TrEMBL record:
This protein's record includes keyword Signal: yes
GO CC term, one of those recorded: membrane
InterPro entries: Leu-rich_rpt, LRR_dom_sf, LRR_Rcpt-Like_S/T_Kinase
Keyword Signal carried by entry: yes
Cited PROSITE patterns: LRR (PS51450)
Annotated signal peptide: 1-21
Protein name stated in the entry: Leucine-rich repeat-containing N-terminal plant-type domain-containing protein
Keywords: Signal
Biological source species: Cuscuta campestris
Location in the cell: Membrane
Length: 371
């Protein structure tokens, strides 16, 4: 035997021992078994090492281009001493899971991310989750119901909270105002009612707020405290107008969507001069009157919807919005001739000027019944 052989044999033993050490503590393995049962996740193979991505196909499935909404990924952090691993992330999107949100999730002390998007999970968020250190929580498109739990306010590590497209009801708990690290709050498409609690003004790190398709009451919130917002969606949310002047402080805004405001008085077009990064702007059914202001500072604007208002005047100034592909101005009081640029758009652009007061002589004969 050559002298190199013992060293090679020793290296193989050490390497093999190291790989064997890359395992979860037994209590986390038991927790995963419980979580699988509670979710209705039947294809986890408990004989495989969940933290070995090379040999644990039931715990990790490569992304597929033909299934963009499917994700089956469990991620471990194995940088702890003595080769110990801990579960850090569970993403089970589009799995057709029909169980409940697992209380045993609280038995994974190092878990930071849980994403159960697009399943058939029912019930509500279990109180056991209050003790977790979750930073990312998404349960979008499930069948969850009941009030949004107050104890979510104790999960202070949360930076991302998405409860969209479920059946949550009742009011938004003021306790959510304690989530000082929260950047994304998404509660759209539920059955939420009442006024938005003033305690949410403390969420000064918010970059995304989406509350569309609910049944809130009261005035639109004051935006003064949310100066970092980049995306704001309040479509069909039940709020009353007018749009507050404090919206002008949202200088980082990229996507602004407000529609179908109830009651409230009419207002002029809000001051959006500082929103130079805007890409999508919707102020639909907001009881806005007056003329469209100069929007040329929005050089990245791609989508503009100002329909169902009382806006007057012409639209010549909109020609300079060179990147806009979708422009909806229907059901206003716009007048004057229709500019030639609006008539010469190609298939890459969609412009709707119907139901306004444009000069008939400038309107193509095929469109005159709607202008």
């Amino acid at each position: 035997m050559s002298t190199a052989t013992p060293y090679l044999f020793l290296l193989i033993i050490i390497g093999s021992s190291f790989l064997e050490a890359q395992k979860l503590p037994q209590d986390e393995i038991v927790a995963l078994e419980e979580i699988g049962r509670q979710l209705g996740k039947k294809d986890w193979d408990m004989k495989q090492n969940p933290c070995d991505m090379n040999n644990s196909k039931s715990w990790w499935t490569p992304k597929r281009d033909n299934m963009p909404l499917y994700n089956n990924t469990l991620t471990c952090n194995c940088n702890f001493t003595h080769g110990v691993c801990h579960v850090e992330s569970i993403v089970l999107k589009g799995q057709d899971l029909q169980g409940v949100l697992p209380p045993s999730l609280a038995k994974l002390p190092f878990l930071k991310t849980i994403d159960l998007t697009r399943n058939y999970l029912s019930g509500t968020i279990p109180p056991e989750w209050a003790s977790t250190k979750l930073e990312y929580l998404s349960v979008v498109v499930n069948r969850l119901s009941g009030p949004i739990p107050k104890f979510l306010g104790n999960m202070t590590a949360l930076a991302y909270l998405n409860l969209e497209n479920n059946m949550f009801n009742g009011t938004v708990p003021p306790e959510l105002g304690k989530l000082a690290n929260l950047q994304n709050l998404i509660l759209g498409a539920n059955n939420l009612t009442g006024e938005l609690p003033k305690e949410l003004n403390a969420l000064t790190n918010l970059t995304e707020l989406r509350l569309s398709s609910n049944m809130f009451t009261g005035k639109l919130p004051n935006f003064q405290s949310w100066k970092s917002l980049q995306q704001l969606e309040l479509q069909g949310s039940g709020f009353e107008g007018p749009i507050p002047s404090s919206i002008s402080v949202l200088t980082d805004m990229v996507e602004l969507r407000i529609s179908d405001l109830n009651g409230g008085g009419a207002s002029r077009f809000p001051a959006l001069n500082s929103m130079t990064g805007m890409k999508k702007l919707m102020l639909k059914g907001c009881n806005i009157f007056g003329r469209i202001p100069d929007l040329t500072h929005m050089t990245n604007l791609q989508y503009l919807d100002l329909s169902f208002n009382n806006i007057e005047g012409g639209i010549d100034g909109l020609q300079r919005l060179e990147n806009v592909q979708f422009m909806y101005l229907t059901n206003n009081s716009l007048s004057g001739p229709i500019p030639q640029w609006a008539l010469n758009t190609d298939s890459r652009h969609d412009i709707d000027l119907s139901y306004n007061n444009f000069e008939e002589s400038s309107v193509p004969s095929t469109c005159r019944e709607t202008l």
